[in-house]
Give the backbone structure.
Amino acid sequence: MDALLEQIPQAGNIQLAIQVTANFNYSAQAAQRIAHRFVADEISYMLRAGDPTLVAGERILWRVPIILALPAHGSVGQVGAVDIDVESGRLQLSAEQIDVMRAARRNWETVIRLPVPQRRQVQQADCLAASTAMVLE
């Protein structure tokens, strides 16, 4: 398990003492199942949930990376992330995040249909960047 601290100053002196109190009602594995069930049912059956990271901010969350897996190609890359509250198990996910994941999936499906020489020229970051740009337009 990894822990990620958000909102730390970028410069100057820092003294970091961590004391967090929360009821861990949802384990990393439970958060992964919740995220997988949501993305597979609501966005695409080709999306999988990766290994969660614990994030301490205003609330304590599990951040679950969402991985696109294509038939006959396996995992092709991360297309987003879903946050799960450790106390309530609620998804923290915006409509924009969902749109980015859908667009990334469509972009990758297009790349996979390309002839092999052209396919090799396309990088994961290009597809995700294009997906984000499509949503923001």
